[in-house]
Amino acid sequence: MDLSDFRHVKYLWDDSIADQLDPVERLRYGSNILGADQRITNTGGGNTSSKIKMTDPLSGEEVDVLWVKGSGGDLRTATRANFASLYMDKFLSLENIYNEAEVKGVKTEIEDAMVDMYRYTTFNLNPAASSIDTPLHGLIPFRHVDHMHPISVIAIAASKDQERLTQEVFEEEVGWVPWQRPGFDLGLGMKEKLKQDPSLKGLVMGQHGLINWADDDKACYELTLSLIEKAAQYIEGHDKGDHTFGGQKYVALDEESRNEILIRLLPKLRGQVSQVNRFIGTVQVTESVLQFVNSVDAPRLAEIGTSCPDHFLRTKIKPLYVDWDPQKESYETLIETLEKGLAAYRADYAAYYEACKRPNSPAMRDPNPTVILIPGLGLIAWGKNKSESRVTAEFYSLAIDVMRASEAISEYQGLPRQEAFDIEYWLLEEAKLKRMSPEKEFARNVVVVIGAGSGIGKATAHRVAREGAHVVCADLSEEAARATAQELVDIYGVGIGVAGTGLSGCGPAIGLGVDITEREGIKSMFEKVVLAYGGIDNIIITAGIFVPPDKQGYIPDEKWALTYAINVTGPYLVADEAKKIWKAQGLKTSLVLTTSANATVAKQGSLAYDTSKAAANHLVRELAIELAPLVRVNGLAPATVVEGSSMFPRDRVISSLTKYNITFEESESTEALRGKLAGFYAQRTLTKSPITLADQAEVAYLLSSSKLSKTTGQIISVDGGLHEAFLR
Ligand SMILES: [Zn+2]
Fold it and tell me: Ligand 1: distance of its center to the CA of 3 in Å?
């Protein structure tokens, strides 16, 4: 096939880049450009390999080394560290061990045991773990092998007459092997197939994908693309156009009506699917998703489930399709249908587990769906974090494309239930899950920090992010909020997965502007959070204002009002708006307000501030009663945090230094002056140490966390020990 014929894949190979690279880096490069196109392979799916001559570090001799994409990670973002390296001769000797076993074949003990054996063949102490697909590469006697999960080829592989279609599309070029769970036995089967017909360039793997090979890496890349292109062109020629999926039954809602419903629906839905584990949501609304959910055939096809094993580990065996007419039926009917659907889905999942389980199967996992399809609205995916839920949304979107293509050329079929079960509950998968480090305190949580643009709020945003939180950085200054969110994204990365419509395509943190003196603004900020993540867990408010009186000690009325609007009414409005979302979710959570040591100490010159903070202290107690038992409400009472505080601009620091007769130079930096003032304040406390932002953030975090899950209606002072501020 000529390169100019490629219309369904992106040809990205660039000799001027590739020719600068060593053979391992060329493999990495080829993998990245294959993974960059979702039509070629999905996120986390597929693997690539090269057999490369290298110098043995022990003997100094030249040896053949199999470099193959290891377990975990993703082709698009893979680095050299994601590739395992195995001595070819040692790897090939494993065939003898396999053959000596009395019982061998797919799903036998020896087959699973082989995965641990790969470690003995490691070249040059490379710590990357080999994947279960390693024998698919090592046993094929060509220098370069690509194994992809392309939509067009899976469509053939998931069709009823897949063998005939393979022949029709690829003629003698590509063979076919029926579905078999990847492992040593499948590798041997492919090797045998190639022995029978040495002219084969690749194989369609039933219900799974494509594998092909060549002795030159660029040629292998071009072969991969040309095979995928060939399948895609064949499918294009058979596309059903408007008759796809049996035609349209429902009409999509416009964006505004859709968002209106999603904003009401998502927290409710999140609460329902999060009864075992909390989930983060992703909304996917593309033309092809809408065409599917609105179609006549959607209920039938959804029931068949996804077919590529790589897909359904995240999408589950099938999605929940909710039969609701967006034009004629009400929101209440949607909720009713959804609740019934969820109950039926869970019962179905339990029945599937019971019917397919084996004596040594792991216990049943969360029976809730991770993909929910609603006519008019689109697809809602759930995952343990944003990245996972984006991958889940991506996978089902790809499954839709596979079904469209398969139904155009034949009839779509799913993987047999038992086979699906044996993948989902594979002991090797279970072992992988067990090896994962335990989830962090705020994993699966959405934490809104109001005031995150600077000072305590910014420090708190960083603190909760370290505990795995999805952080909504909100601030009066949208620019400052976005800057903090960007810092977090830079540290933690956006993760893998390429789905998510609009705000829902976000990473682990977003920055939003909000003025907490206005209810409408708060409401619209929360709506954005719901669209981005599906709901809200903890809220921490650090926003506050200190308006000093003038030289005569006078505070103008409007400044008095502003102080109360921000320090008292603001937190109340936030709590009142959040209450609606929390109630819809029905999940336990927490709210933290920031008050002040000044709330309990009367002193000259801060009348408005001190009384507003005293009111905030009592607001904590009132809200704790109002919002129980769903939400714990506590207060953090800082004192004199000078470090990085927007409440201590240079002018205020200088006037304080002057007031306390502390010597300083005008040329000193603001932070240096703040340090001097902080040192002075520290001497007035019992602990004699400056009070830092980190000290405050730690308590904001603790109060929100499960570590203080039995504490509500309390104020914790973080003031270094001011005996006059002791609470009574
Ligand atoms: Zn695969």
Answer: 26
CA of 133 relative to ligand 1 center, distance in Å: 7
Whole-number Å distance, alpha carbon 311 to ligand 1 midpoint, is 10
Distance 221 CA to ligand 1 centre (A): 17
The DSSP H or E segment spanning 391 is helix 386-409
What gap in Å lies between CA 45 and CA 39, rounded to an integer? 11
Lowest mean pLDDT among 12-21, 40-49, 56-65, 335-344: 40-49
Backbone φ and ψ for 122, nearest 5 degrees, come out as -60, 130
Query: Phi/psi of residue 104, each to 5°?
Result: -135, 170
Q: pLDDT, tens digit, for every residue of 223-240?
A: 999 999 999 999 999 999
DSSP letter for 280, please: E
Q: What is the DSSP letter of 569?
A: I
Scanning 586-669, the segments in alpha helix (DSSP H) are 607-627, 650-659
Dihedral pair phi/psi, residue 211, rounded to 5°: -135, 135
Among all chains, which residue has been given the structure tokens 């973080």? Answer: 718
Residue-level pLDDT at 297: 97
The answer to whether 499 and 484 have CB atoms below 8 angstroms apart is: no
Sheet hosting strand 83-87, strand order edge to edge: 83-87, 62-69, 47-55, 144-148, 209-214, 202-205, 174-177
| pLDDT value at residue 728 | 66
Q: CA-to-CA distance for 417 and 440, rounded, in angstroms?
A: 34
Show the DSSP H helices in 141-216 as ranges.
Answer: 151-157, 162-170, 184-196
The position carrying tokens 């792991």 is 362
609 is catalytic: yes
- Which residues touch 18 (CB under 8 Å, ≥6 apart)? 26, 29, 30, 217, 218
Q: Which of 221, 250, 533, 609 is catalytic?
A: 609
pLDDT value of residue 520: 98
Distance from Cα 491 to the centre of ligand 1, integer Å: 31
Q: How many Å apart are CA 202 and CA 74, to the nearest integer?
A: 22
C-alpha of residue 187 to centroid of ligand 1, in Å: 12
Question: 296 and 246 in contact (C-beta within 8 Å)?
Answer: yes
Distance CA 515, CA 267 (A): 23
**In angstroms, rounded to a whole number, what is the distance separating the alpha carbons of residues 495 and 391?**
9
Query: Which residues touch 226 (CB under 8 Å, ≥6 apart)?
Result: 1, 6
Q: How far apart (Å, rounded) are the C-alpha atoms in residues 459 and 465?
A: 10
> Ligand 1: distance of its center to the CA of 149 in Å?
6
Q: What is the DSSP letter of 663?
A: -
User: Position 207: which residue type?
Assistant: Q
Which residues, listed in sequence order, are joined to residue 631 by a DSSP beta bridge? 589
What percent of the chain stands above pLDDT 90?
82
Residues 291, 377: Cα–Cα separation, whole Å: 11
The model's pLDDT over 24-55, given as tens digits with 9 standing for 90+, comes to 999 999 999 999 998 999 888 899 999 999 99
User: Is the four-CA dihedral 160, 162, 163, 169 of positive or negative sign?
Assistant: positive
Residue 606, both tokens: 């801060």
Strands 47-55 and 62-69: antiparallel
Q: How far is the CA of 290 from the centre of ligand 1 (A)?
A: 27
Q: Is the pTM of this model over 0.90?
A: yes
**Cα(558)–Cα(583) distance, integer angstroms:** 35
CA of 41 to the centre of ligand 1 (A): 9
Q: Which residues pair with 146 in a beta bridge?
A: 48, 212
Show the tokens assigned to 465.
Answer: 């992010």
- Tokens standing for residue 543: 């926003």
According to DSSP, the β-strands at 470-475 and 509-513 are: parallel
So what's the pLDDT on residue 549? 80
558-595 residue pLDDT tens: 999 999 999 999 999 999 999 999 999 999 999 999 99
Task: Name the amino acid, one letter, at 247.
Answer: G
